[in-house]
Amino acid sequence: xxxxxxxxxxxxxxxxxxxxxxxxxxxxxxxxxxxxxxxxxxxxxxxxxxxxxxxxxxxxxxxxxxxxxxxxxxxxxxxxxxxxxxxxxxxxxxxxxxxxxxxxxxxxxxxxxxxxxxxxxxxxxxxxxxxxxxxxxxxxxxxxxxxxxxxxxxxxxxxxxxxxxxxxxxxxxxxxxxxxxxxxxxxxxxxxxxxxxxxxxxxxxxxxxxxxxxxxxxxxxxxxxxxxxxxxxxxxxxxxxxxxxxxxxxxxxxxxxxxxxxxxxxxxxxxxxxxxxxx
Length: 279
Known about the structure:
The protein has helices spanning 16-22, 83-98, 159-163, 171-185, 192-204, and strands at residues 6-10, 31-35, 57-64, 105-107, 111-114, 117-129, 132-142, 212-217, 232-233, 242-251, 257-261, 267-270, 275-278. It is of the alpha+beta class. It has two domains: 6-204, BirA Bifunctional Protein, domain 2 (2-Layer Sandwich); 212-278, SH3 type barrels (Roll), CATH 2.30.30. Strands 1-2-3-7-6-5-4 form a seven-stranded mixed beta sheet, with helices on both faces. The N and C termini lie far apart (41 Å). The mean pLDDT is 90.
């Protein structure tokens, strides 16, 4: 991992993740594609990612893995360990924000919250080669200078809103700073000791861990999580899944969330899209 990173800036793209996928064979390991504006940005659960042009960071990081350990690519990573990529990304964002005196936490699996407001979303797309990862495209949308948001968004936030009146940031400088943090932390995902350290830090920064909270069980719907309307809601409609009280206790080895259900007193395991949160 001799090379740090290369940042490629675009004025406008449909989606930085889509651009990375279109040119995955041509771009180098640790390339960063960043756009001032996205016309078709995507979030998790198939949602769109809305952002005002030039006010926020919209970028994708390309990680290419290898079995030969050459400097041109990263070491091999077993597909069973892919949750480490998500955890690393979330921790790097937490560290970046802390350096700007912004307190934040990780909403499982990798959204970033500050004062119960979503300040950043992450969409990671992995490609497999047998039992190992071939590449990862890490799409990040970090709200930086934006202060006004779509009224339909449940709980948007930004660095500027968290920092107070008059706060503004240079988004290009922010991206360089974040990537320095990310690449310094990256080697940890390739060793057992490093992954253990990442998991421990991830759990310490997990939003709502060990706190009683309200959740939505989307596995209770007729067709399972496919009917789940949203990952986070301010209220409940009658057909949006079983509402229950629980406490986030841990993360499984595969990266699923473990929640203690107050009614059954059981520790239940939920995968991505199977659980919702109520503000």
